[in-house]
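hiii, so i know i said id send this last week but things got crazy w the move. better late than never?? heres the sequnce for the chain we talked about at the cafe, plus the structure i predicted for it. fair warning i was half asleep when i ran it
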Amino acid sequence: MQYHTPTSFDDAIAIAAQATGTTRFLAGGTDVLVQMRADILTPDTLINVKGINGVNQITRTADGGWQIGIAVSGAEMSEHPDLGGDWPGVVEATDLIGSTQVQGRCTMVGNLCNASPAADAVPAMVAAGITVTVTGPDGAREVAVEDIPTGPGKTSLATGEMITAVTIPPRGDNGGDAYLRFIPRTEMDIAVVGCGVNLRLDGDTITEARVALGAVAPTVRLVADAARAIIGTTLDDAALAALAEAASAACSPIDDKRGTIKFRTHVAGVLAQRAAKIAYARAKGQKDT
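okay and structure toks below
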């Protein structure tokens, strides 16, 4: 195995472009190192990106959004004084990855590129409209988070490409987001269903919304019908019922030891309703209860 510690993205990309066999990038390592120890994966090339300038920084963008370095840990996001005020759902979702010890290492980008359908950070990222900068030998491009995973363990990144930045849009006024998941145990388990909701209000009426579901399809799913079900409403009972119906209809899960198709489909609707209520309350400036 070839192990590299580049000090720039250009160097990392050049190494990845020339590599043969299986290549992995190492930021937090909470997926790739576990897979290596379990003999699930043995990379031919392992590229440690933690020495690249800026990968551990959280910064405001000129338009009031956020740029998150690719090696920023979940703990660093949770401890940031302002990020959680803008995007509590995104921060809370990332905070659900693993234990306290794992939180000190895990990253949003790693959670995204591991491409698990049950990833916790990803539905909240999709709901928030987060984009990532994908850089490769042919230059850089901005890609919506939902377009990165293409199936379990697979991404749309080409040979030599890597994610070099995460951009969270400006929160703006009268907006709120939330992420909820259902797990069999109270801590450190894999989501049976996850749901992220992001919305904006004009008065009491929802004018914008995005709803994303995890663990109910081969990739995290952005559900446009679920968003349409609540846009133009005050999240009354009829809107909540339509939201649940649309969320359940978008599911194409599997039966496994953690949950049946029927159970996952039902829970997706329930979580969508609950997450929407939390996001709505946050958009109105109400404190969580």
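btw The mean pLDDT is 95. thought thatd interest u
miss u guys!!
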